[in-house]
Specification:
heterotrimer, A alpha/beta, B alpha/beta, C alpha/beta, A: alpha/beta, Hypothetical Protein Ychn, Chain: A, three-stranded parallel β-sheet, 2 helices, 3 strands, about 20% strand, globular, B: alpha/beta, 4 helices
Chain lengths: ~80, ~120, ~90
């Protein structure tokens, strides 16, 4: 049965591993046919800034953009 | 100039380990004598066999070898290693295991210390 | 109940997560720095099932120190979260 996942993301993109964890959970849940909402609150909103230039760790802007195309709903 | 870089945090969970190795490698390029000291959860950086695969992370374990190749030294504190549950054979080759007293002597010996 | 633990065994959050799992007879999922609980006997006294996320285990080089922990991928985690009546975390 399809369910709804709601991820509450409050950490900035490059100071914890939460970015990758949120991306992996959202990606897997979407592929399994669930709905996924992501609420970015506080510093979490920085994950969605344009023109990020991250290197050496997962790129929040690119990864979340791909997920939005796959159906992730993001609320800031 | 002699610089000690102390790392107290595990790799990947936050960016302190990446920052510590970045500044340690950067300092070797400036002809600074670099000593990277792994204490507390910092010892997890020394675990063999880290596999970044498609995670998007840089393999930080491999960067310890770069520090050594560039002439830096990496030390692992014995008591922290014991607390981590890791054994000497779990650790990347080329690192030195030191006790708390030896660690303090290194800090006495260097000119500057950075803590991550 | 399923408890997600993302903090290392030496942090108050990590210890809190494990205590809550123990007190509520819950299973745990270890991810991020929580996977360091797999080393040696850091889960001593925990009677539930412990799972650990493969990607985070491999990243830290811990594939060779697995003791009594079931390795799962992200898809397995999603299935577990859907099956469980309640999920708490991440500690």
């Amino acid at each position: 049965m399809a369910k709804t996942f709601t991820i509450f993301l409050t950490t900035p993109p490059y100071s914890s591993e939460n970015t990758l964890t949120a991306v992996r959970i959202a990606d897997s849940a979407l592929r399994k046919g669930h709905s996924v909402n992501l609420i970015a609150s506080g510093d979490g909103v920085y994950c969605f800034l344009k023109k990020q230039k991250a290197k050496g760790l997962p790129h929040a802007g690119d990864l979340f953009s791909e997920l939005i195309e796959k159906g992730l709903k993001v609320y800031l | 100039m002699r610089l000690a870089v102390i790392l107290t945090k595990a790799p990947y969970g936050d960016t302190q380990a990446a920052e510590a190795v970045r500044h340690a490698i950067g300092a070797t390029g400036e002809e600074i004598e670099v000593k990277l000291l792994l204490v507390d959860d910092g010892v997890y950086l020394a675990k063999k066999g880290q596999d970044e695969a498609a995670s998007g992370y840089t393999n930080l374990g491999e960067t310890l070898k770069d520090i050594i190749d560039l002439g830096g030294e990496v030390f692992v504190e014995k008591a922290s290693l014991k607390d981590s549950g890791l054994e000497t054979e779990d650790i990347i080759e080329g690192l030195s295991i030191v006790n708390g007293y030896e660690l303090s002597q290194i800090l006495l010996d260097v000119d500057k210390t950075m803590i991550f | 109940m399923l408890v997600l633990i993302k903090s290392s065994p030496h942090t108050s959050e990590g210890k809190r997560g494990l205590k809550i799992a123990r007190d509520t007879s819950s299973d745990i999922v270890l991810l991020q720095d929580g996977v360091y609980f797999m080393i040696n006997d850091m889960l001593d006294g925990f009677c539930g099932t412990a799972y650990a996320v493969k990607e985070d285990v491999a990243l830290r080089g811990l594939s060779d120190v697995i003791r009594g922990v079931k390795i799962i991928d992200w898809d397995d985690l999603i299935d577990k979260m859907v099956e469980e009546d309640k999920v708490v975390g991440m500690f």
